[in-house]
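Predict the holo structure. Ligand: S-adenosylmethionine.
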Amino acid sequence: MSDPELEGAPAPWLNELLACPFCRGALVSGSEDSLSHGEGGFECLSCEARFPVVAGVPRLTRESACRVARNDQEKDRKTLAVRKAFEHQWRAFGSNPRIFGKTREEMRELVTGSRIGPWIDENYYRDRLVLDAGCGHGRYVQEFAEMGARVVGLDMGEGHLVAARKGLPSHLKDQVAWIQGDLLHCPLQLDQFDLVFCDGVIHHTRDPRLAFARLAGLVVQGGSLYVWVYPRGGRLWEATHRSLRAVTTRLPPRVLEKLCYVLAPLLAIVPTYSSTRPSRASFSECAQVVYDWLSPAYQSHHTEDEVESWYREEGLLKVARLPVAVGMIGRKEE
Ligand SMILES: C[S@@+](CC[C@H](N)C(=O)[O-])C[C@H]1O[C@@H](n2cnc3c(N)ncnc32)[C@H](O)[C@@H]1O
C-alpha cells in the first residue's frame, strides 16, 4: 500500500540540476511514462537512458536505469555492500534522538559554527543552493532548509532516503529535493551549488580522490566545498582496525547490528570522533556509532596535507583547515 507521506512529485526546480549518470546529458521529466511504479521518471536527452521516480525520489543510479543491460551494471560488489550496510544503519538507528552522538541542535551548531568554516553562519544559507552529498539520515538537509536554503539531499541507497523524507516537516517540502545517486557517477550538472557539504562520505567510496573531484565540479564559481574524512592514525592503530574490520565487514548487517549492542559499552573507554559514550548517549545511540565504524566495506583514512592538496589540484584556492581533523572548506574563485 502506498504511504501518503511519501507521495508527490520531486520539486520542479530540481529538473534543471539533473544530469545523466552515464553520459552527463540533461534529463527531462517524462511524467506520463509508465516507468516502474507509475510515478513518472526522467529521460536523458542524449543517450535516452530512463530513470524511475519511486516514493517521490528520482532513482538516478546506473542500476536503476530502465534501458541498461545487466552487464552494464555496477560490478563493484564492495560498493553494493557499503550501500546495504548504510541502508540497514538508517533503518535500524535512523530515528534515534541523537545520531553520531548529536542532537538536532548540535547538528545546527556544526553547520553554522567554527566547524564548518569562517565564512559560513546562519545568515549564509538564505536563498542558497546547497547539496548534502551522502545525506544518509537527512538531518543536515533539514537544518539547511530551516535556515532558508534550497537543498538537494543525495545518497546512494534508498531505504534511508525514504526515512529522511518522512521525517521532514511539511513547511520545508518545497525547499528540499531528495535523489538517489552515486557520487562517482554523479547525476548532477556541474557548477551549480553555492555549498557542497560532504560529511563522512568519500572515505566510504572506491576512489575518494575521484569522489572529491566530482564534488568540486558541482560547486559554482565563488561557492564552497566542505569535506570531512577520517584522519589517518598511527601504524598500530591502523593495523588493529584493519584486522577487526576484515571480520566485521563480512558479517550480515543484522548480525553485526546485534554484535554492536554487545560492544556498545566499550565506548566508555574507547574514544570516538563524535565523542559518543554511554554516560551521555543511549545504548542504541552507542551501537549506531560502533556499527558505523565496523560495517562499511570501504573505509579509508587521510592526512590534512593530502586533502588540502586535493583542494588545490581542483582549483579551490581559499582553503581553511577546520578545528576537527580532517575537516576542510575551500572556495572556488569567482
Ligand atoms: C557515515 S554516513 C554520513 C551521513 C551524514 N553525511 C552525516 O554526516 O551524518 C555516509 C553516507 O554516505 C553514503 N554514501 C557512501 N558512498 C556513497 C556514494 N558513492 N554516493 C553517494 N552516497 C554515498 C552512505 O549511503 C551513507 O548514508
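The longest strand covers residues 219-228. Residues 126 and 307 are 29 Å apart (CA to CA).
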